[in-house]
Design a protein that fits this description.
about 400 residues; alpha+beta; 2 domains; two-stranded antiparallel sheet; 14 helices; elongated
């Protein structure tokens, strides 16, 4: 029940004991502030991991050929393994139901020019399915299609930054650019969530790249998107079967650590998510330890405060105040102070997270968009308020039971 006299007494007590009130409130505000900022940083670290992997599809294998280290099947060690167009066809034939899409990849650096403007960019000879693997977002025009691969067209899909750099505000669609001495027509402009570096890439048909390089059928890499319905465990089994299939096809020792390498993005994602989760748990643990230390600090202060007010409590009891009334007043004062300072710490923590958010934090400390769920922040604040009340209740209850004559003798 609301009591004007109780609140008047509380405000008078606060006014008379400003330093004591500040110390009590400061320990609460500091605990909440540190928790919010640390928890937000933990979420920011997790966001960085998700952003790093989220710019590309996560259900993909990147398959690379390399040099063998062990002799096998009549071949000497240090044999360079190569992939060809028919390898892609045989993988599809062998594992068709497990494959969602597949694309060859041939990566080259090139000097690219348009009129009097030129620069160096990475070019990727790919198939139409690479759009799904890279999560390429078409801004205008279109991506490469099956006809471009079959006809070996000299079409190019350029990144947003390529258009910005060498076209300088001019619409690139339909224009011709020179890529290392060959003229390509721009049929599309894309953007990529991976950032500016990803958008400084040019995609051309892989068959066109092979034609330029002597009409060969060699590939640098094969990018395969597996059917997501098989799940993580299915992906791991597929990984092993595909590895064994390629080693058998290319006559590579099964125990050779090299020869063929499959980068399983799903596995890498899970491993990095586990690392991020562990780091987040550690940071959250530290944050909760700060909260506990704040509760202990409040408890120690309240013990001192109530000890200091023993004579005052004795006078109130002598005037007819019941133990319940005394305990309730002390609890109300404690809850009021912890609530005000708790939400001050909460607001300051959120303000700091918003203030420090930026590119420099992401680049220097790998923390992206540090944030905390409002529900979590409010829950922890209320938890600290409740703990503060409990910290005050025990010594208040003990003090309220002291006989007036004993309390008045307290020095």
């Amino acid at each position: 029940m609301f009591s004007r006299d109780n609140w008047k007494e509380i405000f008078e007590t606060i006014q008379k004991n400003k330093l004591r009130t500040f110390l009590t409130g400061f320990s609460v505000a500091l605990g909440i502030f540190i928790f919010v900022t640390l928890f937000g940083m933990g979420n920011g670290l997790n966001n960085t991991f998700m952003k790093f992997f989220g710019s590309d599809a996560t259900n993909i294998f990147r398959i690379y050929p390399s040099q063998t280290t062990l002799p096998y099947g009549g071949y000497k060690a240090k044999r360079r393994i190569e992939f060809y167009n028919e390898d892609v066809e045989e993988i599809v034939k062998e594992f068709g139901p497990l494959i969602q899409y597949i694309s060859p990849r041939i990566s080259r650096g090139a000097s690219v020019s348009y009129k009097n403007k030129s620069d160096n960019y990475g070019t990727e000879g790919v198939g139409p399915s690479m759009q799904f693997a890279e999560k390429t977002i078409m801004m205008k025009g279109r991506y490469l299609n099956a006809n471009d691969i079959r006809d070996r067209t000299k079409f190019a899909v350029i990144g947003r930054m390529v258009e910005k750099d060498i076209f300088e505000g001019t619409d690139a669609l339909g224009e011709y650019i020179d890529i290392s001495g060959s003229a390509f027509k721009v049929i599309g402009v894309f953007q990529d969530d991976g950032g500016d570096n990803e958008e400084r890439t040019i995609f051309i048909p892989y068959t066109t790249r092979q034609l330029i390089e002597g009409n060969n059928n060699k590939l640098d890499q094969i990018v395969l998107g597996f059917n997501q319905a098989i799940g993580y465990n299915g992906a791991m089994k597929f990984d092993k079967k595909l590895n064994a299939f390629l080693r058998n096809k290319k006559t590579i020792n099964p125990d050779d650590p090299r020869g063929v390498r499959i980068q399983n993005v799903a596995e890498n994602l899970k491993e990095n998510q586990q690392v991020a989760s562990v780091l987040k748990i550690i940071i959250s643990g530290i944050a909760f330890a700060v909260i506990i230390s704040g509760v202990l600090g409040i408890s120690n202060i309240m013990v001192f405060v109530i000890k200091e007010r023993t004579k005052e409590i004795g006078i109130r009891k002598a005037l007819g105040a019941t133990p319940k009334m005394i305990t309730g007043t002390i609890l109300l004062e404690s809850v009021f102070i912890t609530t005000i300072f708790g939400f001050v710490g909460l607001i300051l923590g959120i303000v700091v997270l918003n203030f420090i958010n930026g590119k420099s934090l992401e680049e220097d400390y790998f923390i992206t968009n540090p944030e905390i769920n409002s529900g979590t922040a409010i829950f922890v604040t209320i938890l600290l308020i409740v703990c503060g009340a409990l910290a005050a209740f025990i010594p208040a209850r003990k003090a309220a039971r002291i006989k007036p004559i004993v309390a008045l003798r307290d020095e």
